[in-house]
Write a structure and sequence with these properties.
mainly alpha, 0% strand, rod-shaped
């Protein structure tokens, strides 16, 4: 009877130890997930702050790009609307 009680106590201790290790592993996995999520949040915040800090430069770049696009399309439209003239017509401004 004493050995049966000792065996039962040993099995109970092993089960308790296994449950404790399992819980510790889950806590560690949760901790790593929190660290990973906080790292992503920090990266997002850094990117957002960089955009906010450089908003004037970004707006100037967008404005310059839109201006260049408008000028290019205007010039392309004028060139497409031109009729080819000979050298004498161009020289006289279209009077001949």
């Amino acid at each position: 009877m004493a050995s049966a009680a000792t065996d039962a106590a040993g099995r109970t201790a092993e089960t308790t130890t296994a449950v404790g290790h399992s819980a510790a592993e889950r806590v560690q996995a949760g901790r790593q997930a929190v660290i990973a999520a906080s790292g992503q949040a920090v990266a997002f915040a850094k990117t957002a702050w960089t955009i906010i800090a450089h908003r004037k430069l970004l707006a100037a770049g967008v404005g310059a790009g839109l201006s260049a696009l408008g000028a290019t399309s205007y010039l392309a439209g004028r060139r497409a609307g031109r009729h080819p003239h000979g050298p004498i017509t161009r020289l006289t401004g279209g009077r001949i």
